[in-house]
Specification:
This is Sporulation-specific SASP protein. InterPro entries: CsgA. It comes from Halalkalibacter krulwichiae. The structure is a single chain. This protein is an all-alpha fold and 83 residues long. It has one domain. Helices cover 75% and strands 0% of the residues. The two termini are 22 Å apart.
Length: 83
């Protein structure tokens, strides 16, 4: 699995109980063999992309506050594809 997608999967695991759509996105990551984040983003439905955008904003802010530059870099790669 692409490193960015692995970081995304870990971040999504924090939101599974709160959002059904997060669970659906997480399941896509678990059940599909995406070669890269571009392929993954193209597979998202509109509502999934919208929720993922919100989650990534939250996760990026958290990573910045924690000064976790590696996490910021990895998650930002996916976030940029969504916008």
């Amino acid at each position: 699995m692409d490193t960015n997608l692995a970081f995304l999967r870990e971040s999504l695991s924090n939101h599974l109980e709160n959002h059904q759509i997060c669970q659906r996105i997480y399941n896509k990551l678990e059940n599909n063999q995406y070669m890269n984040e571009d392929e993954f983003v193209r597979d998202l439905e509109d509502n999934e992309a919208t929720i993922l955008n919100l989650i990534l904003q939250y996760e990026l802010d958290y990573a910045k506050n924690e000064q976790d530059e590696e996490r910021v870099k990895q998650l930002n790669g996916i976030y940029e594809l969504l916008i």
